[in-house]
Each structure stands twice: as structure tokens, then as C-alpha cells.
Amino acid sequence: MDLARSDAQRVFRDELRAFLVAALATEVTDDFESQRAWQRALYAGRWVAPHWPARYGGRDASIEQFAIFVEELARARAPQLANRVGLQTAGPVLLTHGSDDQRERYLPRIASADDIWCQLYSEPGAGSDLTALRTAARLDGDTWRVSGQKVWTSFGAESDFGLLLARTEPDAAPHRGISCFVCDMHAPGVDVRPLRTMTGESEFAEVFLDDVALPPDALIGERGAGWEVGNTGLASERGVAFPLKEQAALQILLDELLDRVRRDRVVPSPIQRDRIAQDIVNLHVLRLMNLKTVSQLSAGAELGTWSSLIKLTWEEAAQHLADTVFETTGPTDPIDEAGRGAAMLRYRMASIAGGTTQIQRNILSERRLGLPREPRRT
Amino acid sequence: MDLARSDAQRVFRDELRAFLVAALATEVTDDFESQRAWQRALYAGRWVAPHWPARYGGRDASIEQFAIFVEELARARAPQLANRVGLQTAGPVLLTHGSDDQRERYLPRIASADDIWCQLYSEPGAGSDLTALRTAARLDGDTWRVSGQKVWTSFGAESDFGLLLARTEPDAAPHRGISCFVCDMHAPGVDVRPLRTMTGESEFAEVFLDDVALPPDALIGERGAGWEVGNTGLASERGVAFPLKEQAALQILLDELLDRVRRDRVVPSPIQRDRIAQDIVNLHVLRLMNLKTVSQLSAGAELGTWSSLIKLTWEEAAQHLADTVFETTGPTDPIDEAGRGAAMLRYRMASIAGGTTQIQRNILSERRLGLPREPRRT
Amino acid sequence: MQFGLSDDEEALRESVAGFVSAQCPLATTRQLLDGPLGYDPAVWRRAGNELGLAAMIIPESYGGFGASPVAAGVVLRELGRGLTPLPYLSSAVLATTALLALADDEHQGDLLPSLAAAERLATIAIIDEDRPALAIATSAAGRSGVAVSGTKVSVLDAEAADVILVVADSGAGPALYAVDRGSPGMRIERENSLDLTRRQFRVSFNETPGRPLGPAASASGLARLVDVACTALAIDQVGVAEAALHMAVDYAKVREQFARPIGSFQAVKHLCAEMLLQTERASAAAFYALWVAESEPDELAIASRVAKSTCSDAAVAVTSANVQIHGGIGYTWEHDAHLYYRRARGAALMFGSPESHRSALYERLTSAAPQEDPWG
Amino acid sequence: MQFGLSDDEEALRESVAGFVSAQCPLATTRQLLDGPLGYDPAVWRRAGNELGLAAMIIPESYGGFGASPVAAGVVLRELGRGLTPLPYLSSAVLATTALLALADDEHQGDLLPSLAAAERLATIAIIDEDRPALAIATSAAGRSGVAVSGTKVSVLDAEAADVILVVADSGAGPALYAVDRGSPGMRIERENSLDLTRRQFRVSFNETPGRPLGPAASASGLARLVDVACTALAIDQVGVAEAALHMAVDYAKVREQFARPIGSFQAVKHLCAEMLLQTERASAAAFYALWVAESEPDELAIASRVAKSTCSDAAVAVTSANVQIHGGIGYTWEHDAHLYYRRARGAALMFGSPESHRSALYERLTSAAPQEDPWG
Predict the structure, then answer these.
(1) Which residues of B, range 107-136, sit inside 8 Å of D by Cβ?
(2) Amino acid A378: pLDDT
(3) Kind and range of the H or E element at A104?
(4) CA-derived radius of gyration, chain D
(5) What are residue B225's phi and psi, to 5 degrees?
(6) CB C262 within 8 A of CB C256
């Protein structure tokens, strides 16, 4: 048990902090084009994806340094990166499974935010059961012809490329017949429509693919290996970046609330005080669970089902805190910029997206505790 | 919607109250023989089973009057009836399915507490799944020979007779091959051993049956119909008596707690105050749910799955209150006569006995909401 | 004894349910969300003419039907089930109850017949900004006419109301005042409320002319008004919870994942069973409070708080679970799940949070000797 | 960075686990439940000789091994897992910590070597009856000798201890006093505690002779002692929760109902998954507090309270769920499930309930400016 930071980590952090102080000296807004400009500024300092190889704009940083990077950006309240899906999802996939040509072509432009990427995985009929996806890619000569419908696509409207999962072998076992592609979002047949969520915002899109033609080199990795290819990085940088960013978002929300309590702008009842204290505890524990993630990865261990424990810890912390914020703040003085109750509504999706609570519990009970799978319907 | 009491009900209640005031004028202790004496005193006034026919010692009372009866005994803090298993379990079974001879022979002595009865249903391998019971009754000439093991038998040591479920048709479907018997607890081969529970008390027994011989007229109702016969009354007087008595027991516990709060012998924290308030709410709602039970039965409706809602309402209220009592009272001043935490330990069984929480939820989801049964193992 | 609807009450329920599904289905309500009132005044008039909703609890002497609180509850439950934004709660229940309890005969005779005929709409303004419900800060003063000053929040349907009944300090205690639409010094702002199907307003008065409707009210008279409001919201939440439960169960039966209906998984089944339990507990608590409101008024202070806290907790839990069971589709704007969740969350905080009602119950039952026989 | 046991720590864990299962299995502990001490002193001596438990955190200069709090936590977790009633927490952790923090060199030199050699046993008496942990009412006065008066509760292993370290008011603030076994005016009564595997005592002193061990302690010095106690109980509860989780999972795999292992039903599977989650969260919180105790002492006030509240809530929930999953058999005296439940319930209230620790966290993080960088 040793959680002390090494000198190298401190140097890395201090250099990053100095860069961020300078880069954030001027006020930055949070619209998409500002996020793109911010990503370019980071790219210029080689601070956009430090764990990537230097040849693609990174610093060959360790996973511990990458964790420091994510935390420091949040701590500095830096804007989001415009191309975060490209960096977190397409990046690891291409680095691991892309051809040399694909890597050269896409990775630098992902890092520089010249190309924006989105993810085309979920479908209306394939939510918890992603292996049930039905979007099909059919080989016509050497051209892939893709038809189907995708949902829950972030940056659908802004994207130049989409990382696509489609069924290429209709007769194979459900998770074996899937392949992973680069989909040109400007190609004919790609139709992106905004998807409005319960919060009233349209932060996602539905993407309709109608006989979209993709060239042979759109395929990433082996044909039929799309399940493994598309999930690359889920248990490493994505397994670190997402929870750390979410932890930071919750910490900011909690800090806002505590600040209001200190200034008597929120006067919680005794029960609400206990709720807030539980939020403090939950965030503290989430931080420790995330530390443990980094520790495991830096020791070279697979995360495996640990990710389900992180997911459940996060979703409980998020929903509890968002509910607290709603219940403690009056209608005239919301903490959320989006209005009172906005976080409470938004975090309903924490127990749904990325594997529902129920799916995580199934994974833990079967794969971590070794309890029997349920019987299949006869 | 009309919850007003009729004049007849008020007359019934007032007569009972007057009887109880007189009968309880002298101090009554709560050991078994005192409970037997108390039951005899009630029997003398025809107040032991008012819903029974007059010829067996009852008053042909309605279910609403029976509910009043149960509540008034609790309200007067009357002692328990020694033969309560006989009255609540054997009584309805014999009244509905017993032969004339069986009724004449057993019912008056059940009411007078001359015979004490117990129930022999649960087995170590048949808890949630009662249809899995393995105790077998085999016909040898005209004698039934019974072997097997029963658990969770109240009054095992004090009983003269046991109401027994045993498998008589080994080849029939699990719940079809069971028959219901009167088992003479003094017969050779009956071995009763005390079963100590987590509270440290031995309020139950294990009963071992080793080739016990039962005469032909020990069979109650049809052979193979034991499942229906043995569960008679579950959804009528037993469905009223048990929840009302338990409601009363919880009300007494809550009253004790509130009384201590009033006298500053318990000084709850703000969180504990909210817990206590929730206990007040829970008991109020349990009372209303029980009222609704009586209303349904008096309208001639079947309770069916409603009993599962009652069970869940009760077990939640019971465990919540018992936990509150433990948490709010110090080690030197327990509310429970049995010591600090005794109720908390005892009510662990509320979510296990009589159908676990999980079984009740299954019943509700499948039979009340019409959700699909789970697939059977292939 | 009957703990459940009588044949008459059941017939009323069916006709209201039929009216709601025919005249104001949720698809229509969605189209009115951005409209000026949030509902269609023509439908409200039809509800008055065809069902007598506006006149229900008004005594026959004022042109009403003199119906019981239980009957009003039957209506509120159906309007909750349909998230129907008609001004029934505001005008026909709360304002009417306030007039019957706190106005003198003359003003009752002035206002109630026009409310009964659905010719006019009223609402009540009782909750002061940043004060508990019964600590009335809004004041009414003046020699000839009366001028009302102060700010009220959570006023239902204030924009639609022809007259706002304001509880204000008369100098001799709180009393009821009528302020007409468009009176000078009155400002009506829509609150940025989570709930999209029940509009709430912040209404401020600055030397606004008001008509005194009756003498200063007793504390218990005012408290009873809040008790009635809590009971009304409680039964509304029962309808909300029942609708969400049925949506969830229906979806769980047809949505398939892993080649099975999701409703065949115990995780979903047991969640539905828990939703059912919460809903049934809420229903028992709300109907009991409604019955008590008429038949055992002394018990209303307790029964209404039990009902409001139980129904609020239930409606929030059940509508939240409904979102969860629907998964992604339940998180979309187009799906109705969020409308129910928003309604439940909003109603839970109106006229006191569950916690505040429990706190009041605790105080009542632990101060001095018990005032009620808990054995009922 | 390593958030988990080092090879040495893992080796320690295995040897303690081996010792527990060989020398003090639960079946043996059950036989000692009604005995005079609740444990076998010979086994404690062997634990001293073979594992060096008594000497672990005592500095080498006093005959100990100078081990870290994390190492002590590794031991506490195994003793919790086995419900092992050895006086490790009382003497080797709490009394030793108190001596190291509050006694002067002379008295450390007097007591620590004999504790390290497992020749003597000590315990601490810090919690006054009806007072919060740090409001010390017990007093020490006198000119030549010192006389201690007052009543302490929740004193561990008081009957077994050769010396009781009493925190009492010296006049200039609370300080540590040693009271020897059998001193006049001292009365030791076993508390009727729920927990059968950790004995607690009420100890009253009436003009009992005591030896002052050091100067008056600072408030922070005393607070740190309570923080260490909370951290120790937290990791004990991790062991308790882990044991209960494993019992439940093992049983769910073999117990059949409806012709299936009950562990194939989602209701049971998901309950087990939730137990796992609680246990893992608790483990992270407790090990972090242990690490902080040595490496970031300023953070201990927060980390220990987070750990104590998290581990208490987890242990109670997990041990209760374990009873539920076992069904009827889990409700029997002969089954071990209740011993774990009792232990968890008892430990949850020692040195402050989860609620009291949350309340302290709230006060700390909302009073004035934040004292810690929450970003870690």
C-alpha cells in the first residue's frame, strides 16, 4: 500500500499546471468552436493526449500521468475538448488495431481537432444487449454498403468521421459477426437528426445510414473482430478518463453546493445536512476507487469487472448528489446553469447509459462472484 | 369509500371491552400455563374464537367483528392465547375440510386449550419452495406410516396434536401429491427438539418423525389435496389475525419509544427523529392496509396476492422500527424486555418466514402484474 | 365498511378517465406546453358542462353538487394519471375550499356560483417566499380600500385566474383577500419549475387593491386549508404513480433484450413489485385522508401529512423507476416518462417536503401526552 | 503507486489467516463465549510469539517491530473476518497508540516492552457515559498520589487487562492515567452488548489510585486517538463484511430451491453484487485511512470518518443481507450469520455512529473556507 506520488509525477504535474495557468489566462467560453480552439491550444503544447506516442502528438506518458492529466484539467476548470470522443474512443482503437496508413491519416487530425469523431454503436433494439445490433455492412465488389440506425451519438452533427460497429457476418454468433469501420459522416446516405433528451437539450443524435458506401480501407482490424476492436481502451484510458472526468464534474457540483452553504445561500435541514455529508463521503470513496483503477492499470493488471464497481459507485454518487442539489436549492437560485433540477434530470442517464445498473450487477455476480448464469428460455 | 363503524360493530366492541376490563382486573403473567388459563377464561365468556360457529364455542361473528376482536385484545394488552396455532391454523382447516367427527372431537378442545396444536409444514429442504417437501406418509394396511423432518414448529414441545403436511403420492406433480393429517404428538416415533434462534431463545422446535403410525381417520380432506387443505384460512382469518396482531405488537413497541422520547429518556438525533417519524408513518399505513384487508374479505372478495402486499408492508415497518429502537436506545435502558437489540434480531425473520421478501415480489410481479414467469432451467 | 370506491365513485372515475383520454390526451397537452395557459380553456368549460368538475364540491345552494372530498379525490387521481393540466386543483378544489372555509356568506355568494358555472377561475396564493406555509408575511392594510403587499410563490394557474385569493395579514391575523386579474401593482412571473404539466407562479403585490372576504382566520382554519391541499396533492400523486407503474409493466412485457422480455428478468420483476407496493401504500394513505377530511376532521392533520409524505416518496420512486425500466427510450424528451417524473418531483415539494411533514408528525406525537388513540 | 497490499503485507495476511483458522476457529470461539475472558490467553501468547502481534506497532527501541498502520490493518481485517476475540485491538493497537501518543518516555519505557512481549495486557478507557467521545468527565485529582473518579463505557477487554489507561481530566486538560487491575474503587461490569465476540465493559472509578503517564494532551492529540480507533474499527468491519459476503455467495451456489441454485436467481445475484460493491467501497475507504494515518496525518481526521461511516454502513448491510440469503438456517443460533451481524451492528456504534461521523464531516467542510483541497 503506497499512494505517494513520485518525483517524476510531480514534475509532470507542475509542468502541466504551469501550462494551464498560462493557457487559461484569457477567458474561454464553452461552445463547440471554443472547445475546438482550446483543444488546438493544448495540441500546440503537446498536452492533448499525453499518453499517445510522441509521433502522433503525445508524450508517451504513463497511465498514472494520464490520470494526473485528466484530473488537472478538471481542477483548472478547463473547457472540454471538442474532439473528446475521437481522443477517447477512436484513438485507442486506431492505435491498437489501425493500419499504419490509418494511424497516420487519422490520429494527428484527431489530436488537433481538425477532424471531429463520433461513435456509432448503440441501436434502438440493441441497448443493454449490444450484440443484438442489426446495422449491416454488405460487401459489394470491394465496397461496403451499410444500412441501419444508430442512436445516442454525441457530436453527430459536428462529426467528420464515425467509429461504426456493423454486422458483416449475419450467420455468425451474435458477437462474432460484427466488424468495426471508419464511417465518413459526410458520405451520401448518412442522415443525422438531433435527439432531444428529457433535460430538453439535444446533446445526442440519431444517425440513419441508408446504403452508405465505405471503401475497403474503412475496415479497422480483422473482419468479424469488431466487438473486440470497438471496445479497445474501455478497460484502460477510457476506463480512467471517463470516471475521472465524471468525478471532477461531481466535485465541482459539490463544491458549488458547499460554497453556498458556507455563504448561507443554502440553509439545509438536518436531514439535508446528512445527505450532503453522504455526498462528501461518496465523492471521497469514488476518488479512492478511481485511484485503485489507476493503481491496477499501472501494475499491468486487467481491469475486467472492476469497471462495473466503478460504474455503480459513480452512478450512485452522481444521482445522490444531483438529488441533494435539487432538494436543497430553491427555485430562484439554481446551482445548475441549466436551471433547477437540471443535474437531477441529466444524471437519470447515469444508471442507464454505458450498461444499466442491472447489467453491471449481472456482470459482477456472474463474472466476479462466480454465481450461475440464469437459465435461458427453453 | 366508507370506513365508519356500524352500530352492531360498536355494540360488539363495547361488550368485548367490558369483558376484557373485568377479566384483566387481576394481574396476568405471560408464561405458557398462564396463557392457557387466560384462554380458558376467554373460552368461558365465548370470547376465544368469535368467528367460529356457536356450536363450537364461537359467536358466528363477521370478519369485521373478528378484526375488532383481534385489535381489542391487543389494545387491552391481553396475554397471548396458549393455543393460538390451533385456533388460527387447525381451526379453519378443520372447519372447512374436517369430517363431522373430526370437528366434534377437536374443535371444542382447541377452543378450550385442552389440546394444544402445532403446525408441521416447513422442512430443511422446503423453505421458500414448500412444494419440495419430502416427509412421506405411506399406507400400510389402513395405517399411515410417516417419516421425515420438520422445522420452525412453534409450541412443538407443548403440543398434543400437529397439523401435518406429508407426501402421499410420490409420483404426482410436486404440489398435487401432498396430504394433510392430524399427527398425535405423543405417538411413538415423534421426537421434538428445541431449535435455538439467533436471538438466543428457543421459540421453535425441530420435529423428527420416524415411522410414526397414524390411523386412517388422521387424514383431513381428500388424499392428495393437502396443499389446498393445509392452506385454508391463509387468506381469511389467518390473513387478518396475523397482520393485526403484528400491527399491535409494533404499535406497542412504537408507543414505548414515543413515551421515552416524551419523558426525555430517549433523546434522538435529528436523523433519528426522521426515522421515528417514518415509523409513525409506516404503522399508520400498515393499519390502513389491514383495514383494506378486512374491507375486501367482508365484501366477499378473495385476498389472493393482496396478502403479499400486507406481508411486505409489515416486514418493512417491523424491521425499520426495530432498527430505530436499537439505534436510539442506550445499552443501559433497553425497551425490549429481552434486552437491547432483541427486537432488531427477532424481526430479521420477518423477511424470511412466511415467504421471503423475494418470494412475495415474485408472486406480485407474476400473479398481480402479469409479468412473465422466469424461464426454467433447461 | 368499504375501503375502496363505491359504485357511484367508480362511475365518476370512469367518466373522468373517458373525458381525459378523449378531450385532453397527453399528446395534446404536449402541444400546449409552450402555449399561454398550458391548457385549453374550451376543454375546461366542457369539463364543467359535461362532468360538472368546476361545481363538484360547491354546495347546492351556490349552484354546485356538494360532492365529498373522496369524489374530488377520484377526479384528482384521474387528472394526475393523465397529467391533465386543467385548473381543477387550483380553482375547483383549493380556491373553492378557501372560500368555503374563510369567506363570509356574502362573498361566497358572490364568487362560488361563477366558479361553479366555470365562468370564472380562481386560485389561492398562500405560500410566502422564503417562509413556511403558515407564517404569513404578505400584509393587507388601508382605510377605505385595502392594499395588499408581499410576494407569494407556488401559485397555481395564476395567469389563467380571474381572481387570486390571497392569504394576507389583516393586522388581526391572516385573512383572505380577493385580487382581480390585472390589478395595479400585481406582477405574475412563471416559476422555472421542473414540472411542465402544472404551472406555478411567483406573484408579487405592491399596494395592490384587494377585497377582504372574511374575518381573520384561526390558525386551525388556515392549517386545515394546507391539510386539504396536501391531501389533494397526495391523491394526484397516486394517479401519477399508478400511470408510471402501468407504463413500466406494459413496456417490460414487450421490450426484449437477450431474446427475452425484460419483464421476465427478476431484477425488473422485483422492481415492478416494489413500485406496486409503493403505489398501493400511497393509495391507501391518500384515500384514507380523503375520507377523514369529511368524516373524521380531527384526524386530518395527521392523515394528510402521512398521505403527503407517503405519496410523495412513492411517486418520486415509482416515476424514477419507470425511467430506469424504459432505459434509453425513457431518457428521451419524446417519451412521457420524464413528464411523470417531473410532476412527481415538483408535487413532492409543494406544500412541504416529505421530510417537513414527518418532522411535524414527530413533533405532534412526541409533545406532551398523545392526543390521539393510535389504535384508531 | 500501489493501492493494495505489497508482497510483504500479503505474506503477513496469509500468516495471520493461517493462524486464525488453525488456532482460533469460530467453532472454538463459540465454546469460549460463556467463558471468563471470551478468548484463550494461551492463544494470545502464541500469537505474540509466532506472529509478533502484540509487538507489531511498538517501536524497535521498546522491543517491537515498528510496523505501519497498514500492517496493523492487515491483521485487524483477518481478525474481523474470523471474529477472533483476541485482545489485539484493545491492547496492541489502541492502548499502544495511546501510550505512544500521550505518555512520556519514562512510562512508555515502563509499559511498552511488557506489552510487546505479550506479558501484560492493556486497554484504554476513553468514552464517558452519556458524553461524546472527547468531552472527558472522568477526573483525576490529588496531591501525592492521584485519584481517578468517573465512569467509562465501551471499554474493550477490561476484565482481561492488567492495566487500564484512563483518559481523565487533569485540571489542565485531559491526560492519560494508568490504573492497575484490582485497584480499589474500580468496578468492572460487562455491558449487555449485542456483539458476542468483542466484550465491552462499563468501568467505574471511585477515588481509584492512578499513575499519571504524561502531561495534559492537546485536543488534536486526543482526537487523533479517536481517529485511529475509528480507522481500526473500519478495517475490522471490512474483514467482517468480506466474510459475510463469501458465506452468502458460497451458500447461494449450493442451496437449491425450485430445482435451481438460489444463486441463479437475479434477486439473489444482484443482492450479492450489491454486497460486493459495499464491501469494495469499504475496503478502499479503510485502507486509504490506514495509509493516511502514516503518510498524510493531516488527512486522517477526514479519512477516518469517511472510513468509519462507510465501513459501518457496509458491514451492517452486508451481514444483514447474508442472514437474508441464508433464509431460515441463517436465523438459527447454530449458524454463524448472526455472529457477524451482531459484530457489525456493535462496531457501527462504537466510537461514534455513521451519522455522527457524517455530521462531523459536514461541519468541517462547511465551516469557513475549505481546509483541504478536495482534489487530493
Answers:
(1) 122, 124, 127-129, 132
(2) 45
(3) helix A100-111
(4) 21
(5) -105, 20
(6) yes
Distances in whole angstroms, Cα of residue B310 to Cα of each of A49, B318, B350, C291: 58, 12, 12, 21
Strands C256-257 and C260-261: antiparallel
**From A64, A71, A206, A237, the catalytic residue:** A237
DSSP string, B176-192: TSEEEEEEETTSTTEEE
What's the first-to-final CA gap in chain C, in angstroms? 15
Query: Per-residue pLDDT tens for B319-337?
Result: 999 999 999 987 666 777 6
Rounded (10°) angle between helices D266-295 and D300-326: 160
Touching B (3+ Cβ pairs <8 A), the chains are A, C, D
Using CB atoms within 10 Å of the CB of residue C106, give its burial: 0 to 12 exposed, 13 to 18 middle, 19+ buried: exposed
C300 torsion bin: left (phi>0), alpha (psi -120 to 50), beta (else): alpha
pLDDT digits (tens, 9 = 90+) for D175-221: 999 999 999 999 999 987 889 999 999 999 999 999 999 999 888 88
Under an 8 A CB cutoff, do D331 and B197 touch? yes
**Quick check: is B228 catalytic?**
no
The Cα–Cα gap between D242 and D76 comes to 13
Cα–Cα separations (whole angstroms), residue C250 to B4, B371, C18: 37, 9, 20
- pLDDT greater than 60 at residue A204: yes
- For D306, the closest chain A residue by CA position comes to A281
C-alpha D200/C-alpha B332 separation (Å) is 13
Q: How far apart are CA A325 and CA C345, in angstroms?
A: 13
- Please give the grid coordinates belonging to residue A276: 450532503
Please state, rounded to an integer, the average pLDDT across all residues of chain D: 94
Helix/strand number for chain C, H first, E second: 11, 10
Closest-CA distance, B309 to chain A, in angstroms, reads 24
| Closest by Cα among B32, B246, B244, B43 to B156 | B32
> Chain A contacts of B371, Cβ < 8 Å?
none
**Alpha helix positions (H), chain B:** 7-23, 32-44, 63-75, 84-85, 91-97, 100-111, 226-230, 237-262, 270-298, 306-328, 342-346, 357-363
Whether the Cβ atoms of residue B329 and residue B344 lie closer than 8 Å to each other? no
Torsion of CA A18, A23, A26, A32, to 10 degrees: -140
Instruction: Name the grid cell of C117.
Output: 358555472
Work out the pLDDT band at C129, boundaries 50, 70, 90. confident
The answer to whether D254 faces chain B, any CB pair under 8 Å, is: no
A374: nearest CA in chain B? B377
- Asked if A59 contacts A3 with a C-beta cutoff of 8 angstroms, the reply is no
When pLDDT is averaged across residues A129-140 and rounded to a whole number, the result is: 92
The rounded distance, in Å, linking the Cα atoms of B350 and A174 is 44
CA distance B253 to A107: 69
B58 contacts B46 by C-beta, under 8 angstroms? yes
Statement: residue B133 has pLDDT above 60: yes
Interface of C with D in 311-370 (CB under 8 A): none
Of the candidates B227, A341, A317, the one whose C-alpha atom is nearest the C-alpha of residue D277 is: A317
Q: Report chain C's mean pLDDT, rounded to a whole number.
A: 94
CA-angle at A128, arms to A123 and A132, nearest 5°: 55
What is the C-alpha separation between D285 and D283, in angstroms, rounded?
A: 5
The total number of residues written for chain A in this structure: 378
| From B72, B237, B246, B315, the catalytic residue | B237
For A288-302, how does the pLDDT look when each residue is reduced to its tens digit (9 = 90+)?
999 999 999 999 998
DSSP code at position B61: -
DSSP helix/strand/coil, C147: strand
Instruction: Kindly determine whether residue D366 and residue A274, on different chains, have CB atoms separated by under 8 Å.
Output: no
Q: In this predicted structure, what is the pLDDT of residue C144?
A: 66
